[in-house]
Amino acid sequence: MDKVFKALADQTRRYLLDMLHEHNGQTLGELCRRLEMTRQSATQHLAVLEAANLVSTVRRGREKLHYLNPVPLNEIQERWIDKFERPRLRALSRVKQQAEKAEEAMADKPAFVYVIYIESTPEKVWHALTDADLTAEYWGHSNVSDWQVGSPWEHRRTDGSGTADVVGTVVESSPPTRLVTTWAAPDADAAAEPSRVTFDIQPHGDIVRLTVTHENLADEAERTAAAGGWAAVLSNLKSLIETGSPLPQQPWLIPQ
Length: 256
Known about the structure:
seven-stranded antiparallel beta sheet; WH_DNA-bd_sf; two-stranded antiparallel sheet; alpha+beta
C-alpha cells in the first residue's frame, strides 16, 4: 500500500492514470505526446506505477501497451474510505468499472486486461484453470479439453446436460505459465473471427500474478460483460485456491 500512496502522490503519475482511464492500452509514445518530458522520464514514472500495480503491461509484437489496473484503488477505498465516509464517497467504488469500460483505439489491441495476485504456485493456478472439476466448483461451468495445441475445448454446464455455452480451440499451451484459447458461441457464424483469451501465469516468491487478456470482442456490450464476468470468476478462483472454498455467494449475480 505504501507503493500505491507514493505513486499517487505525484501529479504526473496521476495524470498518466487519467490518460489511461480515458484511453486504455496506450504505448509509451502515445503517452509521451501529452507529457512535456522525455521518454526516459515518462518510463521512470510508469515504472513506479507498475511497481504499485496501478499499471499493467502487455506486449503486442514490438509494442508495449499500458493498462490501468484499478484493483489497488479499490483496496484503498475499502480500507481507508468506505469505513469512514461510505455514503458521501460511494462514487469512488465505480473507478474499476469505469476503467474497464474504456474503449480501445485500435482493433488489434487487447479489448480487456485483468490482473490478480494469488497466494499459490503456477502449477496450482494452471490446474485450477484447466481441471474440469475445479472449474465447475468456482466457475459454474466445466472447462473440458486435453489442453493440447489444436485441440477443442468446451465450457460445459454443470447440470448434467452436457451443453456447452462456449467452445473454442487451444491456440497455445505452455504449462504452467501460459494458455491461449479462442472463445465463441456454439452456434456462432463459422466465418466470424472468435475472441481470444490469454492466461499468463507469473510466479514471484510465494505468490502468482495471473493476467487475463480477452481480445477481439464484438462490441462494447460484449466488452462490458467480459469485464464483469472476469472480475467475478477470478475473485472466486482466488478464494478457492487460498481458502479451499469459493466465495459464499456467486459473485456474478451481484447487480452491476
